[in-house]
Write a structure and sequence with these properties.
about 375 residues, alpha/beta, eight-stranded mixed sheet, seven-stranded mixed sheet, 17 strands, about 30% helix
Amino acid sequence: MAIPVVEPERYAEQLAAKRDYLESTFAAFQPPALEVFESPPGYYRQRCEFRIWHEEDDLFYAMFEVDPENPKNKRVIRLDQYAVASERINQLMPQLREACLRSDELRRRLFQVEFLTTLSGEALVTLIYHRPLGEEWEREARALEVELGIMIIGRSRKQRIVLSRDHVWERLEVDGRALHYQQVENSFTQPNAHICQKMLSWAREVTAGHQQADLVELYCGNGNFTIALADNFRRVLATEISRTSVASANVNLEANGVTNAQIGRMSAEEFSQALKGEKAGRRVAEMALDEYDFSTVLVDPPRAGLDAQSCEQLSEYAQIVYISCNPATLAENLTILTHTHRIERFALFDQFPFTNHCECGVLLTRR
């Protein structure tokens, strides 16, 4: 892995390169003009994880750079600051390191540190150890919580100690509304909150005008899109396989006063079977699928994209909103989806500046 080098003066150049790459990659589909949503060039990641490297009496945050010609060769990169991470994480990095340097209990066999922060400055720090944690660790960690104004979780093999709480509350401004999201430790959340706000606003814009019909959402996570899009539709049915994410999504529905959305714990494949009447059971019955009139499907799949069967399922909806973290698999899926649908909107969300990563949004409507 290459460590991103943040050069704000070159941001426009790197963003133009991503634009060129996407326009070239998707030219065969003849999409409309690419909409480009830029990120702050630095301090954009609200969550990061670092290995802790011990050298004699010293310790420091580390990442590893892999030799592309010999992947077994990894070079340790010391990080005292990390311009990719949020300003809150950069503030905490030296403070936490200094606290560990002066405490044998906090530093002993500390293996990894994970930071989860919000735009408002909330911070949850997970300290991961290669040893059991006892009362002395808890006493010192609680004192550190107070000293740094953070929340701490301690982890080791078969052990998880939550000192205050296991989540932060993110507040996103979307089209003049404040949306509140519980973000749980060790669960997926959008790492670039600035871009997330722009993604949600874009998704609201492209799905406007469907208040008489329903939305189905696959891979809904903690309800990131569900919350933002609920008032664009009569009802929303969102599915997610992770128990933790489903629980968090339900908390977020309540926190935002969303009453027209339901979260079903089910994989995309199982949901496809349920729609076809090939799967029954309590969870399917609770969804009451016969009561929905789906006009739109929103899908935000993993990097592997969708299989052919899932693409076939999506093609049955009048409108498809496809959020992709992997242009290569998106292009493969569009080869299938554009047989029945045409691309109406095409967007680049620069989630990770100064990397090759491209996050895309595509709106497709039935031909």
